Amino acid sequence: MLRTMIGSSRARSVLLGVTAAVALSAVPTVAHAGEGIIIWMESDAPDDKVRQKVENLTAAEVHLSHVDLAFPPQPATPEDAARIETLRETMAAGKAKWDEFDVELSIARELEAAVVPIDLIRDKRDLQDIVDARLFQGAAVQKAFSPDDFAVNEDAKPFRKELPGITANAPWVSAMALDPDRELTRADVADGSAFPDLQALQPAYKELRSAELDVSALPPGATLFIDGTQAKPDDKGIILLRPGAHYTHVLRREIVSGRQILDVKSAAELDLPLIVDQTELEQAKTQVLAGLTTGFPDDVKESIEDLARHNTGPIFVAALDEKGRPKVVPYARGAALLKSKPVTFVFAGEVGGGVIVSPLFDQPDPDDPGAARSNVTAPAIMGHLGFELGIYNFALIGGSDVSLTPANVVTYDNNKTASILPQPWGGAGVYVLRPTGSTPTMLLAGTYGWNFPGHLAFGGRVAFGIPIDENKTWFRLVIGGDAAPTSMWDGDLKDISMYRMYLRFGLAGGV
After folding, report:
1. CA gyration radius for the chain?
2. Mapping DSSP to helix (H, G, I), strand (E, B) and coil, where does residue 2 land?
3. Neighbours of 365 (CB within 10 A)
4. SS3 string of 211-272?
5. Strands 238-241 and 211-214: what pairing?
6. Which residues are registered as beta bridge partners of 356?
7. Which of 39, 83, 120, 363 is deepest in the core (most CB within 10 A)?
């Protein structure tokens, strides 16, 4: 994709604002082929809570934003090498027919057609090939037109470059801009008679003031290349460029991105152009909030297409309204919003440990069975099997816990003892994060149940789920407890209490 940016200065405040937003954000995740991506029409992707909400709607997990549109990935491909090879072949063919009659204009046109598709200079060899071609092309232009005819002939228009006080040979200007330190010789032009004209242009070109390119809008972690060489700005983020065309690209996460050709004017002050600027981003955002994927500015569409080329999964576009609520629209690759399921069902199994505090662990005195008992804190191994029936964010839950107290036994009902204590229960809760996909879950619940041997207990628990695969399976962490200040027994045992606290780990699976 070829984009030529005219060397007029953009509003630096907009670019700096974008840069600040990017600098404060985490580096975006790199999309792998087949993954769904969400492209935000925002300066930066939103916070985790909003992202999670959108992921639940799309099942996509890669979030991209303005910086990715402004510098879309355009990796080097075999096509780039083929374009350079075509230029070499075109130049060789032009030299082979140079001595034929009246061929100079056709040679210049053929070379122009070979140069125009090139939008990436990969290294010094590419640079030399383009500079050599421009010098040769300039000689062809110089031979094709007389000095008076060059300034007015319509056929010469593509090869004219207006400089202060002079109409110059554009291919030669391009060659001097790309390699200003090169010592030009007669061998650089196909015809020795054109060399004096090239020599005459050099002093006039050297008198032109360089332009200042502000690269402060460069994304953090990115490297700028100009004409195939890594750019080295000064302390103020400024790079000096000679007037003429310059090839730029950004290396982000080791991927060539944001290819552009800058047409630099003498003494201009310009910022590193964004392929998609803030105005275009706002225009696209308006369309997304209206539920449309049409009416995007051309630069936005082309940048999205660049992103899409490197991902075969579904593509969504998203934006935040003035209240911070997300609007998501399917864009391409079979993208479709997931229907929100009102009902969810989850099975869970957990193991862990905790403590049970109760006087029942205080063994009665055989000589005084009616004596008061004291609280004993018994370490317990605990397990759980249960279910959660969710209706939107409301949940009905139930199941059974079992506690094993190997170092202690409860004594009840005429000196019966036990160290395995079942605890069936039921309850209700609220999902802070619903178990609707391969996303984290969180449940807050209250419970009521029977704690063996004779207690009705009120309790509560917090269950966290971390997804471990794509099939609604979660690793679970549960923290909870319950309390039964009195027992179900009559008489002296009425005031026997039982309290539990626990931490358990396990797995949960959704249906």
Report:
1. 37
2. coil
3. 10
4. EEEECCCCCCCCEEEECCEECCCCCCCEEEECCEEEEEEEEECCEEEEEEEEEECCCCEEEC
5. antiparallel
6. 378, 500
7. 39
Neighbours of 28 (CB within 10 A): 20
How far is 183 from 375, CA to CA, in rounded Å? 96
DSSP string, 97-153: TTTSTT-HHHHHHHHHHHHTT-----SHHHHHHHHHHHHHHHHHHHHHS-HHHHTT-
Label residue 477 exposed, middle or buried (CB < 10 Å: 0-12, 13-18, 19+). Answer: middle
Tokens of 212: 């200042």
* Residue 98 to residue 109: CA distance in whole angstroms: 14
Q: Is the dihedral of CA 124, 125, 130, 133 positive or negative?
A: positive
Give the span between the Cα atoms of 498 and 112, in whole angstroms: 89
Please check whether residue 58 is in contact with residue 37, taking contact to mean a CB–CB distance below 8 angstroms.
no
For residues 390 and 463, what is the distance between their CA atoms, to the nearest angstrom? 14
Structural domain boundaries of the chain?
31-71+275-332, 78-206, 343-510
What is the H or E stretch that residue 301 is in?
helix 298-309
Find where tokens 């036990």 sit.
418
Nearest to 308 by CA among 300, 81, 57, 327: 300
Q: Is 300 helix (H, G, I), strand (E, B) or coil?
A: helix
Looking only at the bridges linking them, the beta strands covering 160-163 and 343-358 are: unpaired
**Under CATH, what is the fold of the domain 343-510?**
Porin (2.40.160)
pLDDT block averages, 10 residues each, the chain of length 511: 42 36 38 77 91 86 91 93 97 94 95 97 96 96 92 94 89 96 88 89 93 89 94 92 96 91 94 91 95 93 88 91 93 83 91 95 74 89 95 94 94 86 96 84 96 95 90 92 93 88 95 80
Alpha-carbon gap, residue 40 to 36, rounded angstroms:
13
**Of 295, 272, 261, whose CA–CA distance to 70 is shortest?**
272
Q: How far is CA 484 from CA 312, 429, 494, in A?
A: 57, 20, 11
Contact between residue 244 and residue 177 where contact means Cβ atoms under 8 Å apart: yes
d(CA 118, CA 81) in angstroms, rounded, equals: 9
